[in-house]
Amino acid sequence: RYTSGQDMVSILQLVQNLMHGEEEEETSQAYRLQNVGEQGHMALLGHSLAAYISVLDRERLRKLTTRILSDTTLWLCRLFRYENGSAYYHEDDREGLLKICRLVIHTRYEDYTIEGFNVLYSKQPVIYISSAARTGLGQALCNQLGLPLYCMCRVPCNTMFGSQHQMDVALLDRVIKDDVESGKLPLLLVANAGTPGAGHTDKLGRLKELCEQYDMWLHVEGVNLATLALGYVSSSILAATKCDSMTLTLGSWLGLPAVPAVTLYRHEDPSLSLAAGLTSSQPVEKLRALPLWLSLQYLGHDGIVERIKHASQLSQRLLENLKNLDFIKTSVEDELSSPVVVFRFFREYSNRDQTSHAGQASTIQHPIINNERHIYDTFNQWLGEQLAQLVPASGVDVVELEDEGTCVRFSPLMTSAVLGTEIQDVDQLVDCLKMKIPVLTSTLQLREEFEQEVRRTVGLLYIEDLSWPGLGVVRYNYHSNGKSDDKQEKELEKINTELLKKLNELESDLTFSLGPEFGGQKNCVYIGMVTEDLDVSELVETIAATGREIEENSRLLENMTEVVRKGIQEAQLQLQKANEERLLEEGLLRQIPVVGSVLNWFSPFQASPKGRTFNLTAGSLESTESTYVSKAQGTGTTPPPTPTSSLAKQRLPGQKIFKRSMRSSDGFSETSSVSHCEDLERMDQRPPAPSPGQEQGPLETEKAEEQKEVARAAKTDTEDIPSDKSRDCTKVEEQESQR
């Protein structure tokens, strides 16, 4: 098919189908995750221009690439206050650090180019990274450099003083001393100006002094480096300008698609930079900077600063609003200005609970503490997913932190330029958060009450699932004696599935489901988030009653099937016996084919048809003689009513099920008792008896008779029921009086 080649139109159509699929008109907007503006088109144009420029003659190409590379490097060094720096442009943001490690190895090991790994074997190199660094960064560096994993040292963060996401400088100093004394060579330290999780910045000033003391290379990376372009920069971030190298990810900061990351570094020996791969003699390699060169010229200095400033204002706006919210705990480095805002839902304990929990935490991690943290992690996971779904333009996501647990992160420097986040999006995010907080607090409060109610209710089994964001998990416990485990498991699945269907048919605000798709319990009913006006006892009672109703109906069907089977067998035996009796009554001659016909013609034999009917209500066989006599099918006895849940709770107009009434229970009982007393007083009232000479009309006579009947009924209810002997005596007296 492709031997002769294809035209341009067919190839472009094939690419379009691969990008958008067959349903392009319906789902084209879903695939467009980013609105590519003019600055985005400028960056994309750079890739096409680089391909065209690469076909120029060698001398013209060399001059053009040198100009593009020098201009871009100069602009970036001035923009981010990095004086006398060189730049390396790369697609993978880890590639710059990899090249820096090779540069340091070439610098510290003079014979590395000749002897290779033998030099490293004689004096083991050590690279230090923070425990809060990106996951898998150390392993990736060791794999690319060909070093064993023990050459990578993870430095713990602070535990007592300072931020728990900052590198422990004192501990790092002791570790480096121990490595030097053991004959190792400290090479490089990777610090963070904005950790990947919480966005905290290491103490870069002290780390720089430590690196100078041990002749180490300091490399800095992180999202907070973007604030170096602003007019006011905090001292902790400003210290990054003194480091040996830094990596900048301008694509996400400025919303530019397909632009390379940049690693700025300072080094005096160009030959070692060339050996490490930081520079290239090929002009085509220098064209990587062309998309960034075009984008920087399009945005200008003011446009770049404005975008970074706008992202900082968004984070500051959210941080100010979160301070006024209850049950929201933030984890930021600077309360006044933090480019990354991390927060989570958390309820403070009372003083007594804090003392008991502190005593438990000081010894061993108590199971209750672990369960509570797991529950909070689950709730914050749900909160982050809800906020991201309700306000997608905010760009919030869920992050796992070592000390805090699951948190919600807002990092506008990484998302606002791409998603177009505005101030109103932050305000909408706060409004949604205000609506979700009461739901979280109510569900957290009612979880324990729900567990206690379920454990007290016969027939229900409480399933503890700490990873479920909701009220809880319940299972209707079905036990059947004489059934195998497989049949009992199928019956349990059938009942709980039907129970879930019945609960979803109720007009309530609750969500009932089978739980998560993966990792959930089988044959259970998962109840989602609830509000504070939930009547937990009514909910549990309804679940139990509905389950019993389904179980009784299931057993009734099983019993009916067994009764019908036995009834059919009994009917066959009775019909066989009836046939034998009929043969005896008719005689042997009537069974002969010709003789029997003649005999029946002379002397007909009258026999009533005898059949059997099965009464499903009574579960017994009955004769069909009455049916042939009356020419109609008998209805039999009235079947018993289907068992239903007796939950006829009085509700206010418009009040949904499982909701507590606004009227207090005491007031409701008092009103009911008063109305009941009034009804009794009306029944006890009797009209005065007429005088002997006064005549009564028909209407008055009828009313008097009704009042007598009411009085007689009331008297009968209060008196004891007469015995059988008294009834017989009464009948005898009536007969004698009639005689």
From TrEMBL:
It holds the Pfam family Pyridoxal_deC. GO terms for biological process: carboxylic acid metabolic process. InterPro entries: GrpII_AminoAcid_Decarb, PDXDC1-like_2nd, PDXDC1-like_3rd, PyrdxlP-dep_de-COase, PyrdxlP-dep_Trfase, PyrdxlP-dep_Trfase_major. Gene3D superfamilies: Type I PLP-dependent aspartate aminotransferase-like (Major domain). It comes from the Eukaryota. Its cofactor is pyridoxal 5'-phosphate. Residues 627-739 are annotated as: Disordered. Residues 676-685, 700-739 have a biased composition (Basic and acidic residues). GO terms for molecular function: carboxy-lyase activity; pyridoxal phosphate binding. Residues 561-588 form a coiled coil. Residues 664-675 have a biased composition (Polar residues). Keywords: Coiled coil, Decarboxylase, Lyase, Pyridoxal phosphate. Residues 338-444 form the PDXDC1/PDXD2 second domain. Residues 450-555 form the PDXDC1-like third domain. Belongs to the group II decarboxylase family. This is Pyridoxal-dependent decarboxylase domain-containing protein 1. The lineage of its organism: Eukaryota, Metazoa, Chordata, Craniata, Vertebrata. The gene is Pdxdc1.
